[in-house]
Amino acid sequence: MKRIGFIGLGIMGKPMARNLLKKGYALTVYDIRPDPVADLVAAGASSAASCADVAGQTDLVITMLPNTPEVKNAVLGNGGVLEGARPGLLLVDMSSIAPLASQDIAARCSEKDVVMLDAPVSGGEPKAIEGTLAIMVGGPEDAFEQARPVLSCMGSSVTRVGDIGSGNVAKLANQIIVALNIAAMSEAMVLAARSGVSPEKVYQAIRGGLAGSTVLDAKMPLVLKGNFKPGFRIELHIKDLRNALDTAHDLGVPLPLSSSVMEILQALRADGHQKEDHGGIIQFYEKLAHVQVRSGT
Amino acid sequence: MKRIGFIGLGIMGKPMARNLLKKGYALTVYDIRPDPVADLVAAGASSAASCADVAGQTDLVITMLPNTPEVKNAVLGNGGVLEGARPGLLLVDMSSIAPLASQDIAARCSEKDVVMLDAPVSGGEPKAIEGTLAIMVGGPEDAFEQARPVLSCMGSSVTRVGDIGSGNVAKLANQIIVALNIAAMSEAMVLAARSGVSPEKVYQAIRGGLAGSTVLDAKMPLVLKGNFKPGFRIELHIKDLRNALDTAHDLGVPLPLSSSVMEILQALRADGHQKEDHGGIIQFYEKLAHVQVRSGT
């Protein structure tokens, strides 16, 4: 792989691009904002004038963008990747978008002999910086093998789940479980607090059993401190659950609990909590039940 | 502790009582069914004619019964523990019952100078046999210290959570989280299956991240085999969630997701699944979405 393009230098994309530079890859970057581009150029990257320009100079293009419309625009739009792409370009979309959108974009790419993988990530900014993201990949096996050394610079777990769109299906599954596990913890701990029992002691008594989870161990210590600094923002979890529910409803799959937790996230956004960590889901319950789940309550 | 009484020799109580005998405790047992009593007598226990009779012969009485009414009857009813108890008797109720009922029963006990602990367990029959249950205890600290060596014969984790009723609050918190984590796994995996993506691959891709949980690792391998042998039966989880919802509603705590998962359990019972493992919650979703989450789908 001679030259890599990177489009989208946000909170996640910027440290991911930096890790590719550190491993010695020649990198051409693009973002609509000049500041992160200047930072990456200072670190050794080249800049390009457009997404098409990135594609024209590189063999593998990574996109790391907020959601489906931004990815469609960057790939299929005016001045997009497909305008500049030479046949044989490999496009790796690491954004978290709707799986059906990944399939649509990949179909448009194949008309121009561009192969696409969807490769969304889990782990947030700290793991993006460390290069230890979990990367869930969908797309052809040979393209996966071609991209794997590049992806391994950014993630410690790189798993091919299946055909194009599968990476985003795994990501949606992940986000459904995380949101509901946080809500489960919240219902349990608000009940404990209102019963006059220490949520911290309940946490210690149950964490080693069947109720144990990564969510419980990651979020309870923060909840007990009333610390809802992100982490992973509620507004981003809303985006992911919207994609999950849209995908499910397109397929005729009812998701009653995911739909309820979406409404809880909407209530938190209406209350101004959208920039807080998704562990802040517990605040919906605290308000409903007039109790606080903190150490000492 | 000279002599221990054990009332309730069911699936859980019988192996728990056996573990006390193995550790050399003198044991007096009672059950309404003659067979398990005969088994324990053959293993070295004495039998008694009634709950009152057990209490009259012992210093510490353990009850391990299905639910609140059985415990109230065994302790407060005709021929119950309080009829035979000498002042200073320690009653350890290891049944999973409503926390407010534990508090009521303890108040009645204290009128007769009987001290009570609530000490429900988690781990099921295999851990009852091994003596490695998780035991969550509520009640006075000195009574807890007195009972701890006895409880340690039956459990590997013995945690005092707080005052009387706290053990059952922790148990309800545990059961809320377990039910919802199973439902979360189910929604995620049914979506994956209907998207044409292998649930097994999705499981492998996400288990190491924030979506990881003891439920996921304990139940997904069984779900992938279509194995819903209990384990922990749906009908028992219904009992626990009923206690959770009753307790929450007595306190004015809304539990919208626990209430939804209760309705899912009710639907499974209506369909004849009540004797199956609670991992079978996924069958509700499989039926709704017309898909099976099994290896190879």
Structure, explained:
The structure is a homodimer of 297-residue chains. Chain A has 297 residues and is an alpha/beta fold. Helices cover 53% and strands 13% of the residues of chain A. In chain A, the strands form two sheets. Chain A has a six-stranded parallel beta sheet, with helices on both faces. A three-stranded mixed beta sheet of chain A has the order 7-8-9.
Question: Which properties best describe this structure?
Answer:
six-stranded parallel β-sheet; 297 residues; 9 strands; 53% helix; 2 domains; alpha/beta; homodimer; three-stranded mixed β-sheet; N-(1-d-carboxylethyl)-l-norvaline Dehydrogenase, domain 2; Rossmann fold; 14 helices; 13% strand
- The quaternary state of the protein chains shown equals homodimer
> What strand order characterises the main sheet of chain A?
3-2-1-4-5-6
Class based on secondary structure composition and strand pairing of chain A: alpha/beta
Taking the alpha carbons of the first and last residues of chain A, their distance comes to: 57 Å
Low-confidence stretches of chain A: none
Please give the largest β-sheet of chain A. Answer: 6 strands, parallel
> In one word, what is the shape of chain A?
elongated
Task: Give average pLDDT of chain A, whole number.
Answer: 96
Named CATH architecture of the largest domain in chain A: 3-Layer(aba) Sandwich
The CATH class name of the largest domain in chain A reads Alpha Beta
What's the β-strand tally of chain A?
9
* CATH T-level topology of the largest domain in chain A: Rossmann fold
Pair of chains with the largest interface and how many residues each contributes: A-B, 74 and 74 residues
